[in-house]
Specification:
homodimer, mainly alpha, DNA-binding
Chain lengths: 149, 149
DNA sequence: TAGATTACTTGCATATTGCAAGTTAATATG
DNA sequence: CATATTAACTTGCAATATGCAAGTAATCTA
C-alpha cells in the first residue's frame, strides 16, 4: 500500500483524483510534457509559474508514486533524468482538455486564444482528439506548436 | 481585480483551472451539490472526507469569489444559507465527469463501482450527459441516487 | 583537471491546514 | 417569554506545507 493509499480520505472517484493530482502544481508538470514536450527537471523549472526546486522534486516523486509518471536515465547525458507519462497519466489527457475548454471560456485573458483550433477540436470531440494526442505524446512530440496560428 | 486574479501565476488555461479549483477540497463541494444534492454548510460538513470548519468556510468564499458558487438565504429557515452552482460552475460538470471516469478505471476500490451505468454514460458521451445533468442540478436534484443499482 | 551543468537536498521564514473551542443570530421548546 | 438548540461561522494554536536561497554530488565539457 502506497503512502497515498494509506492516507486516502475516501474512495469517491472525485476524491481519488484530488488525492492524486489535486494541488496547484501536479497538472502543470503534465501540461509541460503533453503540450510542450518537456521531459527533464531543468525544463520544468523554467515554467512561467515558477516551481521551487523542492516543490518540483516532491511533486515529481508524488506523480511517480501515483503511477502517472516514470523516470529513466538519459542515454546521451548521464546527468539528466527523463520523465515520461505512463498509460495512467496519458488517460488524464481528457481531464486536462476539459479544464482547458472551461478556462478558455471563462478567462478573458486566456492564452487559449492563441490556439483556437485546438480549443475547437476539444469542444467537438475531446475523446478522439485525446486519442491522437496520446500517440504524439508517446513519440515525445509537443502539441501546442501544431496549433499556434 | 479579485484576490485570485492579482496573484495569478499565468493565463495558461491549465493553470487558470488550478488557480480556481486546484486544491484538495473545492471540487468536493461541487461534488456534494451535483451528485448528492447538498446545499448548506452543515450538509457539506458531514462529508466523509471531513472538512474542517475553517477550511470549508474559506473554500466556499473562494468558490463564490471565483464565480462558481452563489449564496442565498433559505426562505424557510433564516439560519441557513443555500449554496448553489452558477453557470460557470455547471460548466465544470464535464471536468468532474472526466475525473470520475479516470478514477473509476484506476482505483481498484472505487465507489464508482456502485454506479456502473453512470460511468458507462460518461464514457459514451460526457457532453450530452453533462447537459442533462446540468438541468437536474438546476432543479436541485441529486444525481447519484438515480444510478445506484 | 578545472569549470559547467543537472538534479536534486537543506535551512529557514512564512503561509496554510487541521483540530478544538468559542461566537452570533435565528428557531424550537416549555 | 426564557431557555435550549441549531446553523454558520470565527478564533487560537500546533503541525504541516510552501517559497526562497544556498549547498551538494554526479556527470559532462574544454
Amino acid at each position: 500500500m502506497t503512502k497515498k493509499e494509506k492516507g486516502m480520505r475516501s474512495h469517491c472517484p472525485v476524491n481519488y483524483g484530488l488525492e492524486m493530482f489535486g494541488d496547484r502544481w501536479a497538472l502543470l508538470i503534465l501540461r509541460d510534457i503533453i503540450f510542450r514536450g518537456k521531459r527533464t527537471y531543468g525544463e520544468f523549472l523554467k515554467s512561467e509559474e515558477g516551481f521551487s526546486t523542492n516543490i518540483l522534486a516532491s511533486r515529481l516523486e508524488n506523480l511517480i508514486n501515483a503511477g502517472i509518471l516514470q523516470r529513466s536515465k538519459d542515454k546521451d547525458d548521464g546527468r539528466k533524468d527523463i520523465y515520461s507519462v505512463t498509460e495512467k497519466g496519458l488517460d488524464l489527457i481528457p481531464v486536462i482538455f476539459e479544464i482547458v475548454l472551461w478556462s478558455a471560456k471563462y478567462d478573458a485573458e486566456s492564452q487559449a486564444k492563441r490556439i483556437p483550433r485546438l480549443v475547437e477540436l476539444i469542444d467537438k470531440d475531446n475523446r478522439s482528439l485525446s486519442k491522437s494526442v496520446r500517440e504524439k505524446v508517446k513519440r515525445g512530440e509537443a502539441i501546442v506548436k501544431d496549433y499556434l496560428d
